[in-house]
Design brief:
Blueprint lengths: L13 H9 L2 H32 L6 H19 L3 H10 L6 H13 L5 H15 L5 H19 L6 H19 L4
Keywords: Membrane, Transmembrane, Transmembrane helix
Organism: Nocardioides cavernae
Protein name: DUF4386 domain-containing protein
Length: about 190
C-alpha cells in the first residue's frame, strides 16, 4: 500500500517519491500498527510453540530452540522494519520539506523489504516437520511445514529473501489453525 518508490511516474525522482509518500501517511500508520501487532503475536505464538515442543520432544532436542529462534528472527525483522515509520509519518504530516527526499526513498524501500523477511519462519517450519516425524504432531502438520517451511527457508537464502513474506505467513496461519484444531485432542 505504501508504494511511492515503486510508482513508475515517480521512478528515480526522490522529490516526487517524497511528495507521494506524504499522501500515504494513513497507509504508513496502518502498516506500522499491523506490523507491530503481528510482531507481538509472533512472540506469544513462538513462546507457546516452544513450550509445547519442549513437552513433546526429547530433552536434548534442538527442535524447540530452532523453532523459537526462527520466529524470533521474523519478529525482530518486523520490529526493525517498522521502526522508522513513525518518524517519517509524523515528519511527512507536518511538512514534507522536513524529510530529505533521498531518505524518504530509502525509507520506502526499507518498509517494502525488511518486514517481509519471514525466512526465519522457514526454520520453524522445518523444526516442526522434524517434530512431526518423531510423532510429536500429526503427519499432515509435518508435511505442510516441510513444504511451506522449506519453501520459506529457500527464499531466505536466495536473493529474493523478501518473497518469504508470502509463504511464511501462509505457513503460520495453516499451522496455527491446525494447532488450535488439535489442541483438544491432547
Amino acid at each position: 500500500m505504501v508504494d511511492a518508490v515503486y510508482d513508475p511516474a515517480a521512478a528515480g525522482d526522490a522529490e516526487a517519491i517524497t511528495a507521494k509518500l506524504a499522501t500515504q501517511v494513513p497507509e504508513i500508520l496502518a502498516f506500522h500498527t499491523a506490523t507491530m501487532f503481528s510482531c507481538v503475536l509472533l512472540v506469544i505464538f513462538a513462546a507457546g510453540l516452544h513450550r509445547q515442543l519442549l513437552a513433546r520432544t526429547r530433552p536434548d532436542s534442538l527442535v524447540p530452540g530452532v523453532a523459537v529462534a526462527g520466529l524470533g528472527l521474523v519478529a525482530v525483522a518486523q520490529l526493525i522494519g517498522a521502526g522508522l515509520t513513525t518518524e517519517f509519518a509524523f515528519a511527512l504530516t507536518e511538512d514534507a520539506g522536513l524529510v530529505v527526499p533521498e531518505s524518504a526513498t530509502f525509507f520506502n524501500h526499507w518498509i517494502g523489504t525488511i518486514p517481509w523477511l519471514w525466512g526465519g519462519a522457514g526454520l520453524t517450519g522445518l523444526a516442526l516437520f522434524r517434530a512431526a516425524r518423531t510423532g510429536a504432531y500429526a503427519s499432515w502438520l509435518g508435511w505442510t511445514s516441510l513444504v511451506l517451511g522449506g519453501l520459506t527457508a529457500l527464499f531466505m537464502v536466495s536473493p529474493l529473501q523478501y518473497m518469504a513474506g508470502m509463504t511464511g505467513p501462509v505457513w503460520l496461519v495453516v499451522v496455527s489453525l491446525g494447532l488450535l484444531r488439535t489442541a483438544g485432542e491432547d
